[in-house]
Amino acid sequence: MSCCAPKGYARLFGKRAARRDVRRYEKDGLDDTGARMVAFLRERGVEGATVLDVGGGVGALQLELLEAGAAHATNLELSPEYEEAALGLLRERGVEERVDRRLGDLVADPDLAEPADAVLMHRVVCCYPDYDALVGAAAGRARRYLVMSFPRDRGVIRAGARLLNVWFRLLRWEYRTFVHPPAALVAAAEERGLRLAEETRGGLWQIAALERPGG
Predict the structure, then answer these.
(1) Which residue among 42, 137, 155, 195 is buried most deeply as judged by most CB within 10 Å?
(2) Helix, strand or coil for residue 76?
(3) Cα separation, 163 vs 92, whole angstroms
(4) Is the Cα dihedral 49, 212, 186, 127 positive or negative?
């Protein structure tokens, strides 16, 4: 881990959270934000594409893209506690050989992942203190698309994040959550040669989908 990597991640995102995420996905499918992210890529065509999912958890977005025709997915995760549940889900769907799951921090270890046609970061940037480093690392590996979701920069959401961080401190957890400026997140990707193609806002989450001109 680098000095900027999130701390206490595995404590919050443990085996119980992983099992819960699998049950929720099997029952209800993707959440609305994740579904919009996948829809953006499906509309542009993913046949034969490679996918890099940074902080992909149990891999729900990857599974949807593989079913839509993507050839291979790489999942990067900081918490080792997701592996058992994620591998069970891959075996159940019969795509275990088409997914490579790796543990580590892309910012601290750039060799963790090769470039991919599409890079995803779903509810990940809010877990990372150095957004420029993380978005830059992800954007640098996006041959065609970078699609990321993050909290909207609204007063009530910032207040909620502060309350959560107070609660984490009371529990003596190291983990913190962040509400980074959306414009700065997009700018960090654009500085690496991407261009904003689509932006959507929900009540809590915002999506920025970027593409590489000529990619």
Answers:
(1) 137
(2) strand
(3) 39
(4) positive
Does an H or E element contain 201, and which?
A: strand 195-201
Residue 108 lies in a domain: yes
Residue 162 lies in a domain: yes
pTM over 0.85, yes/no: yes
- What does R_g of the chain's alpha carbons equal in angstroms? 16
Rounded distance between C-alpha atoms, residue 17 and residue 10, angstroms: 10
SS3 letters across 85-152: HHHHHHHHHCCHHHEEEEECCCCCCHHHCCCEEEEEEECCHHHCCCHHHHHHHHHCCEEEEEEEEEEC
Question: Position of tokens 């991640």?
Answer: 9
The residue range of the domain holding 185 is 9-211
Q: Report the distance separating Cα 206 and Cα 85, nearest Å.
A: 27
DSSP state of 160: H
Structure tokens at 126: 């809010």
9-27 pLDDT tens trace: 666 677 888 899 999 999 9
Q: Which residue has the higher pLDDT, 124 or 11?
A: 124
Rounded Cα gap, residues 43 and 103, in angstroms: 30
- Please, are residues 22 and 45 in contact by the beta-carbon 8 Å criterion? no
Total of domains in the chain:
1
